[in-house]
Design goal:
This protein is mainly beta. The protein is built from two helices and 25 strands. It has helices at residues 6-12, 24-32; strands spanning 4-5, 44-46, 57-60, 76-82, 89-95, 105-107, 111-124, 134-139, 142-146, 152-153, 165-171, 175-178, 200-203, 211-212, 220-227, 232-239, 244-245, 255-256, 261-276, 284-289, 292-296, 301-304, 307-308, 314-321, 336-337.
């Protein structure tokens, strides 16, 4: 019986609207002493913070270098976030042209993903004995909400990736098991599972229209997941070119969560955001653009700036957990606005 975590597998082979996480170890260091945004590496910035508040993390992922491939198939990944307690990680993965999916397998943890470019293939199964699953080609704009114990994988001789591509993916941490005896991740544990789950797969570009976000003129939203029982929410936000925000507007007002953890990823355009060291001090303003990543961890203060906040408009993905960075059935708290 061979058990191998998804995290190890990756190593070896493989929204601002309300706002924008940082590892617990980093949070502890930030609370111990004042932190300033000068500490960066050319593509990553931590905003200023003073205890009990924490920093917002901003990464220009386009300028973040790709490490060497981590498997013999040429796959690469950029790690944007990692949780030392759960082993969970948020990554951008890159797959080459012709990349196949892994053989039929499942995780004992939840994952979500958004495809940024190109394509990647998988097959969805309802039984561990099934060898031909429903074909799924993931392309730009597809959002995946995959619960634990959802069977998926590739099939030899079936269609592989046509052009290669990139994907933003959150693996919440746990173990991965194959149901194919020849695979080195195979485990007999599948025989003890009584119920297999199915994912929610949404083509956000063609299957779901924009809706007006009533509290704010010109703001549009796509509600992908809004699950208070699980404490998990995913939305895509849009503001038009030239959009302005007044200080009285609730949408985008700077706030913090005491325990909720939020991830934001700019899909296109530009937007000017603001982060606070403390509620009493002047905001630090930063413009983020396409493929910028913004983490809004517990006790960090973040919002959209006032006045003219965008030149070309902006679209961003926003994912929020009620607590921690894995589904744990804690409802998402209301924001604590600072003005």
């Amino acid at each position: 019986m061979n058990k191998k975590s998804r995290r190890v597998f990756f190593q070896q082979g493989l929204g601002l609207a309300g706002a924008m996480s940082i590892t617990p170890l980093l949070i502890q260091s930030l609370q111990a002493s004042e932190h300033h945004s000068d500490q960066n590496n050319g593509y990553q910035t931590l905003t200023s913070s003073s205890a009990p508040h924490t920093s917002v993390k901003i990464i220009d992922t386009d300028n973040m270098p790709w490490p060497p491939p981590y498997n013999d198939r040429g796959w690469k990944s950029k790690i944007l976030f990692s949780d030392p307690e759960t082993g969970g990680r948020l990554l951008i993965i890159w797959v080459p042209i012709g990349a196949p999916g892994g053989v039929n397998h499942y995780h004992n943890f939840h994952e979500w993903a958004y495809w940024l470019s190109g394509d990647f293939v998988n097959n969805e199964y309802t039984s561990p004995l099934q060898r031909t699953g429903v074909f799924q080609q993931f392309r730009e704009g597809i959002f995946l909400d995959r619960p634990a114990f959802s069977l998926h994988g590739g099939e030899e001789g079936r269609l592989d990736s046509q052009v290669g591509g990139t994907c933003l993916i959150m693996e919440e941490g746990g173990e991965t098991f194959s149901v194919i005896p020849e695979d080195d991740r195979y485990s007999d544990d599948w025989k003890n599972i009584k119920q297999w789950t199915v994912p929610r797969i949404i083509d956000t570009l063609s299957d779901i229209p924009w809706e007006a976000y009533k509290p704010a003129n010109g703001v549009l939203v796509k509600r992908l997941v809004d699950d208070q029982v699980r404490g998990f929410r995913a939305r895509i936000w849009q503001i038009p070119a030239g959009w302005k925000r007044s200080a009285e507007t609730i949408f985008g007002r700077a706030y913090y969560h005491r325990q909720a953890h939020q991830f934001n990823f700019v899909l296109n355009g530009d937007i000017r955001i603001q982060a606070y060291q403390t509620p009493e001090k002047k905001a630090e303003e930063i413009t983020v653009k396409k493929f910028f990543y913004v983490e809004h961890p517990p006790m960090s203060i973040l919002g959209i700036a006032n006045g003219n906040v965008t030149t070309d408009g902006c679209v961003w993905l926003q994912v929020t957990y009620g607590k921690g960075t894995a589904i744990n059935n804690v409802p998402i708290e209301a924001p604590n606005y600072i003005y």
